[in-house]
Known about the structure:
Keywords: DNA-binding, Membrane, Sigma factor, Transcription, Transcription regulation, Transmembrane, Transmembrane helix
Pfam families: Sigma70_r2
Helix content: 40-55%
Organism: Actinomadura decatromicini
Transmembrane segments: 302-323
InterPro entries: RNA_pol_sigma-70-like, RNA_pol_sigma70_r2, RNA_pol_sigma_r2, WH-like_DNA-bd_sf
Amino acid sequence: MAGEPGPGQEDDLRLANSLRAGDVIALTEVYDTYAPFLYDYCHGLLRDRVEAAGALRNVVIQAREHIDRLTEPDRLRGWLYAIARKECMRRRDSPNRHTGQEAPEADDDLTDEQLARREERRLLAHSALAALNGRQREAIDLSVRHELDEVDLSGIFGMPLEETLALVEKSREDLGAALHAALIAQNHWKECPSVSALTESWPLSPQAATSLVRHVASCPVCGERETPPLQTDRLLSVLPIAAIPGDLRLDVLTAATAEDRSANRRAIAAWTEPFDEYGWPLPYEPSPARSRDRSPRRRGPLIAAVAVAVGAVVLLVGAMSWLGGGDGTGAAAGGPATGGSGSPGGESGDPDPSPSGLDPSVTSPSPTASKSPSKSPSPSKTPAKTPSKTPSPPNRPEPPRAGRLSVQGCSMGGQDSCVIRITAVGGPVNWRVTGTSGPVAAGGAGHLEAGQSGGVRVSRDIGLCLGRQSGSVTVSPGGTASVSYWC
């Protein structure tokens, strides 16, 4: 991830050549080097730890079986991500996918004050990313957090390199505008009624974030307001990283090397096909016929393509206008308050992936052919002569059980505001701020699904202040959150 040393192309070349030579130790080193990052990426696409673990296992198997296809061994890392994306898209298309078990976040040795600051920055990141569409958020996540270049992204997305360059450039521009708008909403929401109305709930929803960006661009007051510079890598570095299970290593390496699983590995490897002329897997297509009709990608040396793309970007502005109009919701480099990076659904660009499909390799040692559907029962030849005198009432689904609200306070320190965290536990919750006490102010209302988190911004009294101050915010249903600050 950004801020952590990643493997270089020399490591890629060495490991790829060792894999081609059949070195089992190299396969272990490949897992130790890349698996934590690939697992986080798969979890961001699938939103389920069981599916992410199954996807990672298949990626290692597929990489070992197909390593001879890769014509650019120094691009091993990006190639692994391309395999991982295709595997995740295939799983998301499965009607038997496993859902509802997100992975825990990787532990950080942070103090309570550092955690509070990270949570506030995390909500800001979610609010800015919500204004982007799914393909943009995934491109930002792969280029910034996973430190992949545009050539790798071209292979991962199955796009010509010049289009990939335009995608990354437009994504960064839109994220900059969205971050500027989110900072205005965070620090100056009191000063513009329109901003205040758009930011009643924090982090912002995709609809609110998009509306806020449009408002800031057209509002003479907000448009002239300056915000502190914040680099993209620092913004995204606070997003959650899915913790890879410690016991997954032995399971993956056994599945990839055990002699009695060779038939299973061949079947799993077949799911990666077809490949392009560079040995990169073509993007997943639900219909195999469409894969054969796909035109070959135009990839080449990055330096030469950049020169061509300088002029091409200008011509592509109109054609790439779809990038600003994604139709999905949620975060690309993560959903509201939880989860990892987001990504398009299939190839459609839906930003928040629905949980992925359960693959045969997850639950059984070898995939089996699907059985032919059984014949439907024939209708009764002689219908009942007389209806029942007292028909039983139809089975009506029970309404979902209402949840409760967990409320966590915050500390402003020496700042003007902070965000209290609210989480729906045990079911959906309609929440509302019903009051405050002490020298603080807050408001807002909204709806949270079970397990979903959000935030409510609390501001301090700007009057005379000496020493440490405290107050509270009452949120219904749920309780009271304590708030403090010092002067």
